Model the fold of this input.
Amino acid sequence: MNALSRTGILGGTFDPIHFGHLDVAAAARRALGLTEVIFVPSRIPPHRQMAPVASEKHRLAMVTLAVENQSGYRTSDQELRSDRPSYTSVTLETCVDTGIPPSQLFFITGADAFAEIASWYDYPNLLNLAHFVVVSRPSHAVSELRQRLPDLEVRMREAGTLASLDLRHDGTLIWLVDAATRDISSSDIRTRLARGDSIAQHVPPSVATYIERRHTYAARSMDGSLHD
Ligand code: ATP
Ligand code: MG
Done:
């Protein structure tokens, strides 16, 4: 591992991936000078009441299509290959085991997801496995997090202060990135698809074509079971 490289990890259900996810990745990359961002679709999201609608195969394929031809972005099926639930802590430990030191690892989340961090598996220890990069989401500004998570305030930094940081010695921190991302969610996309509305403004053309051709979000069977 190059001593100067910085690896970003963006976890999510990606059901489906959309422009909001790509905006988050770009904002984090720009703010922290990340060398690459790896998109890691989750297998069994521990915080979800409902299982993902699209199968693992389809979610991975859509993420791969969305990031192909974009230098510095790639996809990992690390969580999908594992038998365990998708715990961020386990994913980050695996990255560290493969030789990426926590000081060069950056886990990216939206502010809505990070607001629930205290309920994540292995909290607060997982905060030592990587830097966390938290990006504002429409209606979830990162500026609210200092008040919402007072125990973590001491670790929070505005991303603009990175220049003065010695990443090797200053421990892992929580970087707040107040960037604009598009007001898009996967749930809204699924609702639009169920209504027959266009998603052209929400996902890259390759993903829209994939969904259309494979009927990825065609009606679920009446008993609610998932299709492949
Ligand atoms: P759902 O509606 O099914 O929850 P989602 O759009 O929130 O889907 P996720 O896969 O849950 O997408 O999100 C993965 C990560 O990306 C989370 O950390 C989430 O906060 C972040 N994220 C998703 N969309 C945005 C957005 N528009 N702006 C900022 N962050 C986002
Ligand atoms: Mg979400």
